[in-house]
Structures are given as C-alpha cells and as structure tokens.
Amino acid sequence: MLNTDGFVQYGSNGYGGMNRDAMGNVILAYAGSSPKSLVIYQELQAIAEGRKQAIGVGITNLEVNLDSLGPINILNDLEQSP
Asked: Domain named RNase H type-1: which ranges (predicted)?
C-alpha cells in the first residue's frame, strides 16, 4: 500500500510517501521537492516517485492511498493535468 502527500508553502514545496506491506510494516519511505507551487503537481510527483520506488523493490501490485481527489481524477482521465 502506497500512502502519499504533497504540500506547498511559501518558500517550500514538497512531496513524500511510504510503501507498507499487508501487515502495515514500512517497506520504504521517500521525500522530495519541486519548484512548482501547485499542490496537485506535488501530489502527482508523490505518486510517481512511490510507483518508481515500488517497482525498484519488486512490488508489482500497488494500492495507492491519498487525501486528494484531484490526482485520482487525473490518473483516471476524468480531469486534465495542470
């Protein structure tokens, strides 16, 4: 399971997340930053990086959990990416 989040603050933007196994144990965690000051962009970066990290450790079936509907709509082609 991948849990992600992104944030935008004055002078600081970033994203992060962690992958957990079925028992809730953390398999990996990551964080990054980007100069783009759109929260939805940071959320999408968090998902992309989490997917990349998961593939890197051999995870092929990934459930993604986040607190924003916008990225989900973009990934399901219900909304356009900024």
From this structure: 3-79
